[in-house]
From TrEMBL, chain A:
Membrane topology category: Multi-pass membrane protein
Keyword field contains Transmembrane helix: yes
Alphabetized Pfam families for the sequence: CBF
Gene Ontology BP term (one): ribosome biogenesis
Sequence similarity: Belongs to the CBF/MAK21 family.
Protein name: NOC4
InterPro entries: ARM-type_fold, CCAAT-binding_factor, Noc4
Keywords: Membrane, Transmembrane, Transmembrane helix
Naturally occurring in which organism (per UniProt): Mytilus edulis (Blue mussel)
Cellular compartment(s): Nucleus membrane
UniProtKB/TrEMBL annotation, chain B:
Keywords, alphabetical: Nucleus, Ribosome biogenesis, rRNA processing
GO cellular component: Noc4p-Nop14p complex; small-subunit processome
InterPro entries for this protein: Nop14 (IPR007276)
Transmembrane parts of this sequence: none
BP GO terms, sorted: maturation of SSU-rRNA
Domain of life where this protein originates: Eukaryota
Protein name as catalogued: NOP14
Pfam family, one: Nop14
């Protein structure tokens, strides 16, 4: 039974191949196209693949021959004219079917049809099938928009397909038309209902878009034939493209994003989007909003905001107060810990910051250290040390000579959100003193540094930022063991030792 | 600048020294060169070869003594084999008579050449030197010159032939005697080494390999005088001292002193003579501690030997060595080798020995009966499967006995390679220990009993043991990490084997060290689990609690701070507390402010039943345990109670922290939120006590931080740079070793050349001076003589003139 179908299949595939070949050879067999279109209505993977290949073969040849070319001069009534019109109609059918196939469940078929579609676009670009004026490019805009509509689907997540599509995005005209389509589409969809899949698809497409690194104002890497005079050609203007890119992003960010999408957007924003925008300040609304959300989102928004403040003179009131609020116990456990500390270090680098502010940060961070895991501490303690090192006024935190009275409690107010009112400068970093007894020898040593006069050079944080437990563990186990002291009181059993504490709560039963 | 100066000074200094060495003393020169110079025209000279004649250091008496001794020694050489050396020696003309008699002693030359040589010697002695002694002898013996030369020759020949025969006889006899001695000795030797070589006895004689026997003798354990056995009190005292020393070491390691000092290079003062008398106390401590390490090792092995005493396999050997010891002791006692007394001594010894061996044998019999089914010796397992095969079928106690026997059979002192075998055995046992806890149900009792065994092995070879345990920990950590990577940084609590391995680390290695190759990473691993594992169900709670408990044990002595454990315990209290549904409380990961599991430990109804304070490992910690079985108030109460107990302990340990208040105030706050009214009374009291403790602890006042006062650094002073071998030139850096060496040699050659030229110049200068002096003396002499002659002549002339004048005067007068 199974054999039979397989044999059938093989015969069928052979058939399709032959038909395509015959069709290519002479227009007599043009009706073969109809057969293949009919066959392509199945769900069978191998048949579909064969059909798509056949389509590719037939139509690239026809486009190359110019058989599809219709000009207004051609008489509709003539035999030739009728044939051409009929052929064009079939071409549209095939195109429609191929776009449908982008939704297909077989990944290979999907990819194959996408590449076939793009090859057809390329072929059309070289040999247009309609009349094109000299000023226009050969780019088949309408056909291409159909492809895009299929790709940026509302119902399916096409992330993998779009990733494959990336190779075409290197062509300047493709990029241009994709952006144009996206802007138009987003505007349309905003009125209607949209799905998460749709957003994901748009994001995937936008994420792929990048611009050539070499700053050339005139872009000339096109998939299709371009008009001779590039200067008036919109597609080849980098500025124009960037404008489109910015507006596409701004439009996109007005959607209500899911939290995971939100995060991934924030992650790429600062190095994949902002450099290509005509005016990154357009993002400031989005970023400030995100910064006010709190938690991990705020952490991520920090980076973009920083670029805006730093390079584009964004005036951001109470930036440091908000940064201060971000210092909470969860910071040490967040996934983006390294990035946060990197940025926080960057913000606090300036030596023009007031002492109260730096002291507040140092004190709050050191308070957080009391609940921090070891890898977090291995960043935080040098961080605090650097802060004090940079701002000599904060030396009082570790070396207070003016008052010798004993205090009953720490004057620092942990819950005060305003760094100027938290009385950090009246306090001392007893937390670091406590951390001198931390179980990890490196952290303990680091905390011990406050006992001695400050060193002139700062501690380089960049190596510590990515620290995690595994690295700390590796560091301890890497060295070859030369001496291993052992206990000296012989045990009688697992729990019958001198200083056993497990016995407090456990029995060996 | 200063350096330059110092260098030039050094060069000068060294030049001085060198020159004084090289320069020949002018007096010396006079003694040697001048002598030669004076003798240059002489054709022969007198050489004084008397002993010590040229040695100025010897006094005359010493010289005489030495000469006498030498003379005696010369005589002794000849008399080496003389048995009756005490007899007075007769001499004639300074030559000993015995020597003359023995002149024809055949001992000296080879057999082959001897005939000719002997006769020749005789002839020579008779004919050439006239041999007044021999002659006179012959005169007295033979009775005159009657015999002709021929007769005498014949007589000589017969005599020498006879002597040759006698010598041969004697040789054979001595050969026979040595043979006999060997045989006797062999029988004696087997008596001596009766125990161990019994099996060998049957083999050895067949082989009859004398070399082997000699070698064996050479390598036989030499006995040493043993110390007297110590009394119990002394032993106790020693043990106490040992423990005290270990404890002080531990404290040092806890503060990380050693580690810090190793890196520091201390500045040496210029006055430091580097003789160890400086106040360099740090170095001393290092040395002391090193010594301690060794001590520890020795003690470790000492203990092992102690353990070996009740071991039957080693007993035999021990006896043997003791016997040997006693006999050797006897030998050394009567060094004069009186045979009889030795025999007596050994008899007595044997009688003494008899009793204990019998006793031991009895004991052995009993033991044998008890362990009839087990063989005595086991091969050390080559891999883990071997060990499993060996142990699997046995009962628990038998397994322990087998392991014990393997260890004792392979004591490092017994054979080479045993140490490695035991080391691999250790790693297998650690693995076995882990696997035991994974059984269904876990064999915790056997695992428990394995601990002392593992401890013993760790004491023997600490570093390999540490490596083995650390490897296990590394594997577990890697496993945990891979789970974390898969689940976005969230882990899963490991099985009971890992948990008990972590506990084993604490038993085998000191947890209080500032940095320890095994315990520090282990601690990191524990904390990683506490920080990264989400708490979803009862087992997670239990395992977390166990790990917190381990943390407490790890830091109990050193009082170090473990934020992860405190966080976790705080989280447990959070799970047990009543929550306000409208408010999200800030909790520290791994706990979440919202979710299914946040009420995991909350007691909703009042419970009166008694709390089971101790949790059972096998019930609670195994991976495949029944979660529903723990879903009851009893378990929850036990957990809460344990949490409170642990917090109390932590609070006591962290008592002196300046941030005590900040650490424990969240705990206190959380305690206030517990539904205490639902708890049994005992638990209520416990919680109250904890809260009181914390409140008490919070009242301690704190001082503002101050940096340590820095000691003013000592003024750095230049000290003389002392080079052991000074080459008199700058050390050139770079260049290969060969080139350097070559340059050195060239330099040395030049230096020596210059020195030699200088010396020659000085020699010639001196000789020139001497010659000049001689010349001058000669000239002076000549001048003096000429002057004398002139004077003489002048006188003569004067006289002659006077005479002439007188004559003319007289003539004038006459005229």
């Amino acid at each position: 039974m199974a054999d039979e179908t397989r044999v059938k299949n093989v015969v069928l595939l052979q058939n399709i191949k032959e038909k395509a070949k015959l069709c290519c050879d002479s227009p007599k067999f043009a009706n073969n196209i109809l057969d293949i279109i009919n066959l392509a209505q199945t769900e069978d993977k191998s048949v579909l693949t064969a059909c798509v290949k056949a389509f590719h073969k037939i139509f690239t040849q026809f486009i190359g021959n110019g058989e599809l070319y219709t000009s207004p001069e051609v008489d509709d009534e003539s035999k030739e004219g009728k044939y051409k019109i009929w052929l064009n109609e079939r071409y549209s059918d095939v195109y429609e079917r191929l776009v449908e196939l982008l939704q297909c469940k077989h990944a290979t078929v999907k990819e194959l049809s996408l590449s076939t579609l793009m090859k057809l676009v390329t072929a059309e670009g070289q040999n247009p099938i309609t009349v094109i004026t000299a000023k226009q490019s050969n780019f088949p805009i309408h056909r291409f928009q159909e492809i895009m509509r299929g790709l940026i689907s509302v119902d399916y997540n096409h992330k993998d397909l779009i990733t494959r599509f990336q190779e075409y995005l290197d062509y300047d005209d493709v990029r241009f038309h994709v952006l144009k389509f996206l802007i138009k589409d987003i505007k349309e969809k905003k009125q209607q209902k949209y799905s998460d899949e749709y957003l994901n698809n748009i994001y995937a497409m936008l994420e792929q878009i990048s611009f050539p690194l070499i700053g050339n104002e005139v872009l000339s890497n096109c998939l299709c034939k371009t008009p001779d005079d590039l200067s008036v050609f919109k597609v080849s203007s980098l500025k124009e493209q960037k404008k489109l890119f910015s507006s596409a992003w701004v439009q996109f960010l007005q959607f209500k994003l899911t939290s995971s999408l939100y995060r991934s957007v924030l992650v790429i924003l600062h190095d994949k989007v902002m450099p290509y925008m005509t005016n990154p300040l357009l993002l400031s609304d989005f970023l400030t909003e995100s910064y006010n959300v709190g938690g991990a989102i705020s952490l991520l928004a920090l980076n973009g905001l920083f670029i805006l403040v730093h390079k584009f003179n964004l005036d951001y009131p109470e930036f440091f107060t908000k940064l201060y609020a971000l210092f909470e116990p969860g910071v040490f456990h967040a996934k983006y810990r390294a990035r946060f500390f990197f940025l926080a270090d960057l913000f606090l680098t300036s030596s023009h910051l007031p002492a109260y502010l730096v002291a507040a940060f140092a004190k709050k961070l050191s308070r957080l250290c009391l609940t921090a895991p070891a890898p977090g501490l291995s960043i935080a303690v040098p961080f605090i040390y650097n802060l004090i090192n940079r701002h000599p006024n904060c030396n009082v935190l570790i070396h207070r000579t003016d008052s010798s009275t004993e205090l009953s409690a720490d004057p620092f107010l942990m819950d005060e959100p305003d760094p100027s009112k938290c009385k950090a400068l009246e306090s001392s970093l007893w937390e670091l003193k406590t951390l001198q007894t931390h179980y990890n020898p490196d952290i303990s040593k680091m905390a011990n540094r406050i006992e001695h006069p400050l060193q002139t050079s700062e501690i380089d944080l960049s190596e510590l930022l990515e620290n995690n437990y595994h690295q700390l563990f590796e560091k301890e186990t890497r060295k070859k063991i030369k001496i291993a002291p052992v206990t000296f009181i012989p045990p009688k059993g697992l729990l019958i030792t001198n200083d056993d504490k497990i016995g407090l709560c456990w029995t060996m039963d | 600048m200063g350096k330059q100066k110092r260098r030039t000074y050094l060069i000068k200094l060294s030049n001085k020294r060198k020159e004084s060495e090289r320069k020949i003393n002018p007096f010396e020169r006079k003694a040697t060169l001048l002598q030669e110079y004076g003798q240059r025209l002489k054709s022969n000279k007198f050489v004084d070869k008397r002993f010590g004649e040229h040695d100025a250091t010897l006094s005359v008496e010493d010289k005489m003594m030495k000469r006498f001794a030498l003379e005696r020694a010369k005589g002794d050489k000849v008399n080496k084999y003389s048995l009756n050396d005490n007899e007075e020696e007769l001499t004639h003309y300074g030559q000993s008579l015995s020597e003359i008699e023995k002149f024809d002693n055949p001992d000296i030359s080879d057999e082959d050449d001897e005939d000719q040589g002997r006769i020749d010697g005789k002839l020579v002695s008779q004919e050439h030197f006239g041999g007044f002694l021999e002659n006179s002898n012959y005169v007295s013996v033979g009775g005159g010159d009657n015999k002709s030369w021929k007769e005498r020759m014949e007589e000589l020949i017969t005599k020498s032939k006879k002597e040759k025969h006698e010598r041969q006889m004697e040789k054979e006899k001595s050969l026979q005697l040595t043979q006999q001695l060997d045989d006797d000795w062999k029988s004696l030797r087997f008596l001596m080494a009766s125990g161990r070589n019994k099996e060998d006895d049957t083999v050895k004689p067949k082989k009859d390999d004398y070399d082997i026997a000699v070698r064996e003798l050479q390598f036989e354990m030499k006995s040493k005088p043993t110390d007297r056995l110590k009394t119990e009190e002394e032993l106790a005292k020693e043990e106490k001292e040992r423990l005290e020393k270990q404890e002080s070491d531990r404290l040092k390691r806890m503060q990380g002193i050693l580690e810090d000092d190793e890196h520091k290079s201390t500045h040496l003062s210029a006055d430091d003579l580097n003789d160890g008398f400086a106040l360099d106390y740090k170095e001393e401590t290092i040395e002391a501690s090193d010594g301690d390490e060794e001590d520890k090792d020795q003690q470790g092995s000492g203990e092992d030997e102690g353990e070996g005493e009740d071991n039957d396999e080693i007993d035999e050997e021990k006896e043997e060595t003791e016997e040997e010891q006693s006999e050797d002791g006897d030998d050394s006692d009567d060094s004069y080798g009186d045979l009889e007394s030795e025999d007596q001594g050994s008899d007595v010894e044997e009688e003494d020995k008899q009793k204990p061996t019998l006793d031991l044998k009895k004991k052995k019999k009993v033991m044998e009966e008890a362990r009839k089914e087990l063989p005595y010796t086991f091969k050390a397992p080559e891999n883990y499967e071997d060990l499993l095969e060996l142990l699997q079928t046995q009962t628990e106690s038998d397994q322990l006995i087998i392991i014990d026997r393997i260890i004792k059979c392979h004591h490092p002192s017994l054979a080479e390679g045993n140490k490695q075998k035991l080391e691999s055995l250790f790693s297998f046992l650690v693995q076995y220990y882990g696997d035991l806890t994974l059984q269904e149900p876990p064999c915790l009792s056997l695992a428990d009993k394995l601990v002392p065994v593992l401890y013993g092995l760790t004491q023997q070879s600490s570093v390999p043991a540490a490596i083995a345990v650390l490897d296990q920990i590394k594997d577990r950590q890697e496993e945990y990490d891979t789970i974390c990577d898969r689940k976005a940084g969230r882990g899963l609590y490991p099985g009971l084997d890992t948990l008990l391995l972590l506990k084993l680390v604490a038993v085998l290695f000191p947890t209080s060290d500032f940095r320890h190759p095994v315990t520090t990473p282990t601690m990191l691993f524990i904390c990683q689990m506490l920080a990264q594992t989400p708490v979803n169900h009862e087992r997670d709670v239990a395992v977390g609690l166990f790990l917190c408990n381990l943390c407490l044990e790890y830091i109990y002595l050193s009082r170090r701070f473990v934020p992860e454990a405190i966080n976790f315990l705080h989280g447990l209290l959070y799970l047990a507390s009543k929550k306000d549904p409208n408010k999200i409380e800030p909790v520290i990961p791994p706990f979440k402010p919202v979710g299914k599991s946040i009420n995991l430990l909350e007691i909703k109804k009042p419970v009166k039943e008694k709390i089971q304070t101790q949790l059972k490992m096998s019930e609670v910690l195994t991976t495949n345990m029944d979660r529903d079985a723990l879903n009851n108030d009893g378990f929850r109460l036990s957990v809460i109670s344990s949490t409170v107990v642990l917090l109390e302990q932590f609070s006591a340990v962290y008592d002196n922290y300046p941030s005590y208040q900040e650490i424990f105030s969240p705990i206190k706050c959380q305690c206030g939120k517990l539904p205490v009214s639902n708890y049994p009374e005992s638990l209520q009291k416990q919680i109250q006590r904890l809260v009181n403790n914390i409140t008490d602890g919070m009242e301690t006042k704190r001082k503002p931080l101050l940096m340590q006062k820095k000691k003013p650094p000592p003024l750095k002073m230049f000290e003389p740079k002392i080079e052991e071998v000074f080459d008199d030139r700058k050390k050139r850096k770079g260049g290969s070793k060969e080139i350097n060496e070559k340059q050195k040699l060239v330099h040395k050659y030049k230096k020596e050349m210059k020195g030699a030229i200088r010396e020659i110049r000085k020699d010639s200068y001196m000789i020139a001076q001497v010659q000049f002096q001689e010349q001058k003396e000669k000239d002076d002499e000549r001048k003096r003589k000429v002057k004398q002659l002139y004077g003489l002549l002048a006188n003569q002339e004067g006289d002659y003139r006077a005479m002439k004048r007188n004559k003319s005067h007289n003539e004038n007068k006459e005229k």
